[in-house]
Each structure stands twice: as structure tokens, then as C-alpha cells.
């Protein structure tokens, strides 16, 4: 077999395994630590790739293609080695604020995790540097491998846990290594394969991931008598069922209820966010439901049609059944929860998810149901209060989402939202503002007549009626609050003396805030002056849980007890990661110039900066566009994980096709293709909303196929600029190829974090338009550097 064919196979498999390992690490971090650290995985992977380009530039003797089998073996060994090292490094984010040794442990994480991606970078950069004639093929193999890997890993994660998949991925890399016929490396591969198989089949307990003892699942399992029952794996979450005294799920239960709760079984997603499955053997045991704040909307609404969004363990569904709602419809965004509870209910009495069950994003499913409801019940609570990741999107609570909820309410229908109280008020006030804006867009005037809210010792229930609340409604609300000793927060005509009566707080902060926000004359000033950002959020920037006003940090810090831990818990680790990544990336891409100056190698070139800027612009533009497409496809594809997988696979595979086309079609080897690409993306940014509306009615499989078709032109175009630049620059200065690889990798590190931070304030549509500008800047850089192409 020809050498360049062997190298293409090695690049393809290495790219496939590397991306699959990156996704696997994200799943491991989500379970073992927190979803916050998914961004750290992405950044570290790209930093490893950047470091590989820097090393090859400083030591050009090691970029021979003959070393590629050795680099592949390094990748194969470092994948399981890095996972096992992570399992023994005692990094605990919860201890970050008082235990300074955690800084050392997180540094070890960076080093250990960077090694596999550093090895992968050596493979690809060496191939680019030594086989410049085949750059289009190499980049095509790289992207196609990554695209296939993003699909393949979903199948692997569906049948096994991520801890075992690490060793399967390591073993896959042995296949291309054996094709190179190096006896010494063959022996090493045989030993590695033996160790991987031994770990998988003889010592599987050795592979189990270490979950932080501060995660809710681990905490609950440390209670006396606690018992782990079963674990369910999927590509998108891990579901655990367990028994523990810590599971006592009755959010906001009135102090007037003095009896025992029925038997409950705990259920967690990714070892956090505990909910519970409640046994419903008899109506008498479910009497506690009457004493929950979340029971109020069921007392108010007609007993006909109710839609419950994300019932998780199913308490809200039991509530609907307890109040004898005729038709109960449930929509659960995590299919694994439905599967776990259905399997578990075979030996446990519960009727949750028995009928009228949909899986996906509630607002998307509403369109397909095409039915109106007396009550839409939304819960955003686990069994214990916890903050959400501020930089994660949430399309359930945007203005457009609440407009859709209102559309599918009957004329006198109710919308109910239940959530934990996490002082100082943030989520409650943003919810109120978002609902107000949505109802206003639905021509529902004087929203203050449609809203009511009550609070218990730990939860708040907000009710919005499509029509004005009647006298009867208000009487039911007042009587319910008085009988159960809940505090009234707001209803039309409420007086100050009716608030903060039973569960006294130092001030009437909640009641006063609701009044000011529902008054048109005071609303704008209150929002502007409030210490947190509580503006309504839209689909274009759906970061509902991001409340930080940068200018108010000096006020927020003392408000949160003078502890920086709050900022980490709310997800504000991301800017810190960005600063860290920019610093490390700059060191890696500037190091070659310092090294060359020290050995008096001529590094200066009148157009060197322009040449390298080209690859920086490409790294930013590609990621900006890709992230925008992922976000825009969440709504039609119902699930964020579906959107990520479909867009990644589509973009990477189609970009690989574009790279291959640029190899043998001269028309694609012209710098003006960048302008064509910029114009293409501009068209997408204008019509993407119409495209999404067109996709919504179809089934999931058809929509995924449509994503591939719709994104094909953009993907093909985005696969051309990188090999074009390498070919043009490599033709005149081949020694710069590793440097270009490093620069592109560095800015690809920065791009995902910068994109999210940009979208929070400007939105994803403007982010996509910024990608267009970056491609134009890349064209101008290439032209100014004197490269035009064929």
C-alpha cells in the first residue's frame, strides 16, 4: 500500500478516535464533576493540538511522516492513561475557594488531558508538513474522520458507559498502526491490546469513574441504609436510581402536614439534580400533595386537559392524577428518564409515563400535538436547590417559548411555573418579565391582572392566566394560602399587610419586586437599577440563567456573603477559562518566534503576520458559524444533544468533501472562494429562521436528514479555506505549516468560549454575521500577503 494512503488512513482513524474521546471526556466530566467543565475539555484539546504545531516548528526534524506510526501509538496509549490519571487526581471544584492545592490539581488536569490531543496534533501536522501535495486529501480525511467519530460515539455511548469506551477507542487506533509493518511497534500494540482487553473483561471495577463526593448522588449514597439500584447510560446523560433517607421529595411542603411521605426512590441525571419516583399505591398516601404549593394551579383550572413539561420523577403527573384531570399529557426532554422509570415501575407502583407521553423539547412537541390545554405545568426543580450553569442555553424560558405556551392555552387556561427560592431573587423576576413580554406580544394587556404568586419556606409558584383572574380565582388563591400557611406574593389588588405573614423574611422583597415589575410606570427603572440582569431573554440569546451585570460585581460580591464561590457555582468559571486559554495559546504561538530569534534564524517576513492572521480568522470563523448552526437547530431537533451531533457530523463530513474537491478542482483553489463562502453564510443568516419553521412539522429522522442537506453547501465551502491557505503558504514557505496549524488551533480554542460570551449580549444571528466578516478578513489577509491561488 502506498505511503500516502497509509497516512490518510492513520489521519482518518486518529481524527475519529480523538473527537470521540473528546465527547467521551465531556460526558465523564458532566457526571464526575460538573457540566461547567465541558468547556475546559474543549479548550484543553485544542491547546494540545496547538502545542504540537509549536513543537514541530521548533524541532523540524521530528515532523517526518515515518514517525506517524509512533505518534499514533502515543495517542493510543495516552487515551486510557489520561483517563486513569484523572481518576486518581483528587480535584474537587467545591473546595476550590479554600483549598489552594486545587490549583495544582487543575494544572495536572490540563497537562494530563492535553497529551492525547498533542499526539493527535503531531500526526496531522506531520502529514501536512511532509506531504504538501496531498494537503486537500489529508484535511478531508481529518474532517471526515471527526464527522464519523461524532456519529459513532453516540452508538457507543448508547450501549456502554464512558469509562469502558475509553479503552475501546484506544484499541481502535491499533488497526492503522499495524498497517505500517513496524515490528517494534507491533509488539507494543499487542501489549496495549492485551492490557485494554484485560481491563475491560477481567477488572471492569478498576475502570469505574471517580465521582466527586460533593455531587448530590454521592452525598445521598453516604446516608445510612442507602442503596444504589441501577444505572442507565445514553449518549446524552447517565440516569441513576437509588434508595436513600436523603430522598424526601415534597418541594415547599406546608408545615401543617405532619404525616409521613409515601415510599420514594431517588433518580438523578449525571449524578446531580435529584428527583424522586413516588409510590402511588393508595390515594390516602398521596394526601401530602394537597399541601404542596404546586397544587394551587390544579385547584384553579378546569379538570380536563393538562400538559406537564419535564415531570422528571413524576410528582407533577401524580398531582394531576390526584386532582382527577381527565387527560394528562407529559413531555420529558430526557428520553433516558422515561426509559428508566418505565423499567423501574414494573416492580414499583407508579403510573407516571403510562400514556400520552412525548420525548423532547416541550414547545417543539406542542406544535406537533396541535391541542389546547386548561393547564400547562412547568417545573424547574430538583429535590434540592441548585443553580443552573449561567452559560448554558435554555429554550424553555424565552419570550418566544412563553408565546407558544400562551398560544396553546384555552381562553381561560393557566400557565404554572414552580421553582426553588434561591435568594436574592433572580430567576423569579426574569420569569415574570419574560412572561409579561410574551403575553404583551400576544396582545394580552395589563398583565398585572393575569398574574398570581405564592411562596412557601423554600419554593415559589407563579401562575399566569390567559384571561384576567376572576374574583373566584383570587378567592381560591387566598383561601389556599391561608389554609396551608403559604405567603401571598402577588395577586391583582393585593395589599402590603397580606404579604410576608406566615414565613417571615427580613423584608417584603419578593412582593415589592413583583409589584414594581407588573407596574408599567416602574418596570423599566426597576430592571435597570436591579443588581442582577433580569431582562427577558429571546431565542437568539437564550441564556435564561445568566444574571451577572459585570458593572455590579462590587455589589454582588458582598450580597453573596463575600464569597467568590457563588460566581463559580453560577457558571462564571467560563471567563476565567477564556483568560487562561488566551494566555497559554499566545505563549504557544509566540514561542517559535522567540526560539528562532535566539538561534538567529530568520523568522521575519514582510507578510508573515498577514499569513498567520489568515489562519487565526479561519479558526474563529469556522467555530462561530458551527456554534450558531448548533444553537439554531436545537428547536427543530427538539434536543440539544441531537442538534450538536447532527450539525457536527454534517459540518465535518461536508467540510471534508469540500477539502477533497479543492484537491483536484482548480476553481476551488482560488482565494475568491472565501468571498463566495462569506456570501453563502450571509444568506444562511438571513433565512435560517424560515428554514427552521419549514423543518418543524417533520419527524426527527427526516429533520436530521434535512440538516445534512441544508448545511451541505455551507459545509463544503467551509472545508476549502484551510487547505487552500496551507497549499499557498506551504508552496513558498513550507516551514510555516506547523506554525499555521498552531495558530489555527489556538484561535479555535478561544472561539467556542468567546462565541458564547458574545452571543449572551449580541445574539446568535449577529454571531453568524461576525463569522461572515471574519471570512472576508481572511480573504483580505491572504490577498495582502500576496497569495491568490490558481
Description of the molecule:
It contains 29 helices and 12 strands. The strands form 2 sheets. It has an 8-stranded mixed beta sheet with strand order 7-6-5-8-9-11-10-12, with helices on both faces. Strands 1-2-3-4 form a 4-stranded antiparallel beta sheet. A hairpin with a 3-residue loop joins strand 10 (about 450-455) and strand 11. The chain is globular, with a radius of gyration of 28 Å.
Structural topology:
Layout (H helix, E strand, L loop, with lengths): L2 H30 L5 H21 L9 H21 L12 H30 L4 H25 L2 H11 L1 H5 L4 H19 L14 H6 L5 E7 L4 E6 L20 E6 L2 E7 L17 H5 L4 E5 L5 H8 L4 E6 L2 H10 L12 E3 L2 H8 L3 E7 L19 H9 L1 E12 L6 H15 L9 E5 L3 E7 L5 H14 L2 E4 L18 H9 L2 H10 L23 H7 L5 H5 L3 H26 L9 H25 L1 H4 L2 H25 L8 H23 L4 H19 L2 H12 L4 H26 L1 H21 L6
Parallel strand pairs: 5-6, 5-8, 6-7, 8-9
Antiparallel strand pairs: 1-2, 2-3, 3-4, 9-11, 10-11, 10-12
Helix pairs in contact: 1-2, 1-3, 1-4, 1-5, 1-6, 2-4, 2-21, 2-28, 3-4, 3-6, 3-8, 5-24, 6-8, 14-15, 21-28, 22-24, 22-27, 22-28, 22-29, 24-26, 25-26, 25-29, 28-29
Amino acid at each position: 500500500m502506498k505511503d500516502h494512503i497509509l497516512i490518510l488512513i492513520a489521519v482518518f482513524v486518529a481524527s475519529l478516535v480523538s473527537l470521540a474521546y473528546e465527547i467521551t471526556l465531556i460526558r465523564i466530566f458532566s457526571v464526575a464533576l460538573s457540566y461547567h467543565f465541558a468547556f475546559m475539555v474543549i479548550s484543553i484539546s485544542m491547546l494540545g493540538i496547538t502545542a504540537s504545531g509549536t513543537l514541530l516548528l521548533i524541532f523540524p526534524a521530528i515532523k517526518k511522516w515515518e514517525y506517524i506510526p509512533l505518534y499514533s501509538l502515543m495517542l493510543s496509549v495516552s487515551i486510557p492513561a489520561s483517563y486513569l490519571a484523572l481518576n486518581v487526581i483528587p480535584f474537587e471544584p467545591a473546595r476550590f475557594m479554600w483549598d489552594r492545592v486545587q490549583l495544582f490539581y487543575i494544572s495536572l488536569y490540563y497537562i494530563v488531558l492535553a497529551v492525547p490531543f498533542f499526539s493527535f496534533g503531531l500526526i496531522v501536522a506531520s502529514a501536512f508538513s511532509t506531504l504538501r501535495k496531498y494537503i486537500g486529501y489529508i484535511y478531508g480525511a481529518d474532517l471526515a474522520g471527526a464527522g464519523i467519530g461524532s456519529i459513532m460515539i453516540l452508538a457507543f455511548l448508547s450501549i456502554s458507559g464512558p469509562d469502558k469506551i475509553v479503552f475501546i477507542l484506544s484499541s481502535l487506533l491499533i488497526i492503522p498502526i499495524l498497517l505500517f509493518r513496524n515490528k517494534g511497534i507491533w509488539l507494543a500494540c499487542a501489549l496495549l491490546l492485551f492490557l485494554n482487553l484485560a481491563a475491560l473483561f477481567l477488572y471492569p471495577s478498576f475502570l469505574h469513574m471517580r465521582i466527586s463526593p460533593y455531587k448530590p448522588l454521592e452525598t445521598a449514597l453516604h446516608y445510612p441504609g442507602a442503596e444504589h439500584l441501577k444505572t442507565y447510560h445514553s449518549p446524552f446523560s447517565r440516569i441513576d436510581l437509588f434508595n436513600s433517607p436523603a430522598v424526601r421529595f415534597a418541594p415547599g411542603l406546608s408545615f401543617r402536614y405532619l404525616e409521613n411521605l409515601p415510599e420514594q426512590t431517588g433518580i438523578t441525571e449525571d449524578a446531580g439534580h435529584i428527583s424522586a419516583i413516588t409510590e402511588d399505591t393508595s390515594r390516602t398516601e398521596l394526601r401530602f400533595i394537597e399541601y404542596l404549593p404546586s397544587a394551587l394551579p390544579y385547584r384553579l383550572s378546569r379538570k380536563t386537559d393538562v400538559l406537564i413539561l419535564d415531570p422528571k420523577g413524576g410528582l407533577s403527573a401524580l398531582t394531576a392524577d390526584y386532582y382527577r384531570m381527565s387527560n394528562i399529557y407529559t413531555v420529558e426532554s430526557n428520553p433516558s428518564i422515561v426509559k428508566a422509570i418505565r423499567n423501574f415501575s414494573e416492580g414499583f407502583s407508579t403510573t407516571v409515563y403510562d400514556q400520552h407521553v412525548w420525548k423532547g423539547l416541550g414547545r417543539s412537541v406542542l406544535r406537533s400535538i396541535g391541542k389546547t390545554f386548561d393547564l400547562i405545568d412547568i417545573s424547574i426543580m430538583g429535590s434540592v436547590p441548585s443553580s443552573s450553569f449561567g452559560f448554558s442555553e435554555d429554550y424553555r424560558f424565552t419570550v418566544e417559548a412563553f408565546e407558544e405556551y400562551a398560544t396553546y392555552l384555552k381562553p381561560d387556561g393557566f400557565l404554572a411555573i414552580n421553582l426553588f427560592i434561591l435568594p436574592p431573587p433572580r430567576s423569579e423576576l426574569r420569569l415574570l418579565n419574560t412572561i409579561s413580554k410574551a403575553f404583551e406580544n400576544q396582545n394580552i394587556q395589563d398583565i398585572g391582572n393575569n398574574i398570581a404568586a405564592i411562596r412557601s419556606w423554600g419554593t415559589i409558584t407563579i401562575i399566569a392566566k390567559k384571561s384576567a383572574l376572576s374574583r373566584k380565582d383570587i378567592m381560591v388563591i387566598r383561601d389556599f394560602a391561608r389554609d396551608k400557611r403559604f405567603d401571598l406574593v402577588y395577586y391583582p389588588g393585593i395589599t402590603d399587610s397580606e404579604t410576608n405573614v406566615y414565613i417571615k423574611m427580613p423584608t417584603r422583597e419578593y412582593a415589592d419586586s413583583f409589584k414594581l415589575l407588573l407596574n408599567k410606570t416602574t418596570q423599566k427603572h426597576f430592571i435597570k437599577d436591579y443588581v442582577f440582569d433580569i431582562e427577558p431573554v429571546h431565542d437568539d440569546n437564550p441564556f435564561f440563567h445568566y444574571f451577572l451585570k459585570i458593572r455590579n460585581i462590587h455589589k454582588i460580591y458582598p450580597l453573596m456573603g463575600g464569597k467568590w464561590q457563588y460566581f463559580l457555582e453560577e457558571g462564571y468559571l467560563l471567563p476565567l477559562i477564556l483568560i487562561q486559554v488566551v494566555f497559554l495559546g499566545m505563549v504557544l504561538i509566540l514561542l517559535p518566534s522567540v526560539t528562532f530569534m535566539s538561534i538567529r534564524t530568520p523568522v521575519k517576513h514582510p507578510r508573515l503576520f498577514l499569513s498567520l492572521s489568515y489562519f487565526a480568522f479561519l479558526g474563529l470563523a469556522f467555530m462561530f458559524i458551527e456554534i450558531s448552526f448548533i444553537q439554531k437547530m436545537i428547536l427543530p431537533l427538539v434536543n440539544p444533544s441531537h442538534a450538536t451531533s447532527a450539525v457536527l457530523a454534517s459540518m465535518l463530513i461536508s467540510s471534508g468533501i469540500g477539502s477533497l474537491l479543492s484537491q483536484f478542482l482548480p476553481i476551488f483553489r482560488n482565494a475568491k472562494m472565501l468571498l463566495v463562502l462569506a456570501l453563502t453564510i450571509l444568506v444562511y443568516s438571513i433565512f435560517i429562521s424560515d428554514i427552521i419553521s419549514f423543518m418543524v412539522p417533520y419527524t426527527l429522522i427526516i429533520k436530521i436528514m434535512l440538516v445534512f442537506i441544508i448545511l451541505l453547501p455551507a459545509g463544503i465551502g467551509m472545508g476549502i479555506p484551510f487547505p487552500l491557505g496551507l497549499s499557498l503558504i506551504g508552496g513558498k514557505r513550507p516551514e510555516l505549516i506547523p506554525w499555521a496549524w498552531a495558530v489555527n488551533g489556538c484561535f479555535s480554542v478561544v472561539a467556542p468560549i468567546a462565541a458564547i460570551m458574545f452571543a449572551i449580549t449580541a445574539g446568535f444571528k449577529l454571531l453568524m454575521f461576525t463569522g461572515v466578516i471574519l471570512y472576508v478578513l481572511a480573504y483580505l489577509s491572504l490577498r495582502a500577503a500576496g497569495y491568490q491561488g490558481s
